[in-house]
Amino acid sequence: MKVFVAAGPGTKKRSDDFNWTVDGELVRLPFGRCDCPDCGCERAMAGLASSKATTTFAVVDNPELDAETYVRAFIDAVVRQGFLAEGDDAGWIAEIADEHLRLASQFNPGQLLEIRRGRVHAR
Q: Domain range for residue 57?
């Protein structure tokens, strides 16, 4: 199964790139945008484990991960990050997780990616 993961610190290509995630951790697209025009949140992926952000990420093929486990990890992270209360309906989060899997399936494993203008692009 192809998934998005945080890319290593050596993947910084642009002067405004940042990476505070754990190399290789699962990441998710931003849910929204804050009021600060300079923070970069609109182009950063959030780590599911660290809850930190990165502007560079990659696709990996993880044969040990199945869709159910991935969706559960995604939901657990979103609850921990405060976007969903424990026990609330997580259906919308499961749909977003499924969308991540659909998007990741469009790229080749190892491909370095970024978000530009709200879309995932190869670097």
A: 2-122
